[in-house]
Amino acid sequence: MPPSTPRIVVPIELKKKPWEQKLLLHNRWHPEIPPVAEVKDGELFRVEMVDWTGGSIKDDDSALDVKTVDLSVVHYLSGPIRVLDKEGIPAMPGDLLMVEICNLGPLPGDEWGFTATFDRENGGGFLTDHFPSATKAIWYFEGIYAYSPHIPGVRFPGLTHPGIVGTAPSMELLKIWNERERDVEENGLKSLKLCEVLHSRPLANLPSTKGCHLGKIQKGTPEWERIAKEAARTIPGRENGGNCDIKNLSRGSKVYLPVFVEGANLSTGDMHFSQGDGEVSFCGAIEMSGFLELKCEIIRGGMKEYLTPMGPTPLHVNPIFEIGPTEPRFSEWLVFEGISVDESGRQHYLDASIAYKRAVLNAIDYLSKFGYSKEQMYLLLSCCPCEGRISGIVDAPNAVATLAIPTAIFDQDIRPKASKVPVGPRVVRKPDVLKCTYDGNLPITKNPSAMS
């Protein structure tokens, strides 16, 4: 017998706001957010989702929506979904939940996405001290390919994936998250050297009632007020999976998620048509609405069997995933190195983040020689299928990171040549990305040796 059509367990109506959907969405992690649907082990089911901003960013000719976006409301997630075995017994704490991505894509009628950088006063990005202004590029999809009128001369196939797939935390795990992230927020600037370089980024996003959506829990009730003050933001990846932004978690992939509450309470969202390793501009993939067709399998007792805690409790574990069999194939790459020396010339000890920042900056400056603005290349490196690597992490004092860019995505040869870089109006790529002014007062990093 052929398999049945996937059952839609979380439908989305594109013309409705997140809080108007038939099954209410949520944007926090908490064990008491009630499930909106139920599935069984081995069942093929479909989950639809809005883009991570819930439609706040528009397909228009302005980046003002990016500059003023309310980040307290993100990410809008579909779920939670309660998972049962074939006998109707729910997944239990200590189990592993295998989630297989059988199919995925944009929602029909909504085949477009966006890449952006936030204003430095509103979240910034990996290179926010170099690029403080809000910017935006719109992408349109032609089957497996994406192109943007704001970054002309570039076209590539997408490795489409969900940015967020995760299970609900237990109250014990939620307490661990909130305590350690509060410590970073309160003490990070005093103790974390990295903050001196990637400065002005929020150190953490602590629980907040502002912008909070808790699914079926009614806003304004005592229950809502209590849970909203405890519920974790969805911004970082954690032990439950969550916002890991792994571009290879695509069609055919399997992810093995730890289960912390009865039923697992699986949630997903933040669909990406394509993303580069690191998603460096922060709003940096090609963000879109979309769907997943999934199958689950409960591995009883799998946490203890397969996951070794890397911390003081059995809850300090992380998911495992398998890469699917389908992804874009590129045979030629241009690779940029970076070392752990910052733009001021200061040495950092084996700091892979500084090394990767340097690699990304090197790539942006190089590619801007071929007729592009640096803003265009910053957004491109955030969303095209580039490969980031920690290449060296032992040879003191310099960590070495690399960023590999597939040369085939460009309509010109970007390799160094004896004939030098082409110059003149014919190679200037217009129009530029949509851009706002930066009106803040935070200091900006300028590299005196780089081209303007």
From TrEMBL:
Q: Origin, by domain of life? A: Eukaryota
Q: Which residues cross the membrane?
A: none
Q: Which Pfam families match?
A: FmdA_AmdA
- List, alphabetically, the InterPro entries matched: FmdA_AmdA, FormamaseFmdA
The GO molecular function terms of this record are: hydrolase activity, acting on carbon-nitrogen (but not peptide) bonds, in linear amides
PANTHER family from the UniProt entry = FORMAMIDASE C869.04-RELATED
NCBIfam families, from UniProt? FormamaseFmdA (NF045496)
Name by which UniProt lists this protein? Formamidase
Lineage of the species this protein comes from = Eukaryota, Viridiplantae, Streptophyta, Embryophyta, Tracheophyta
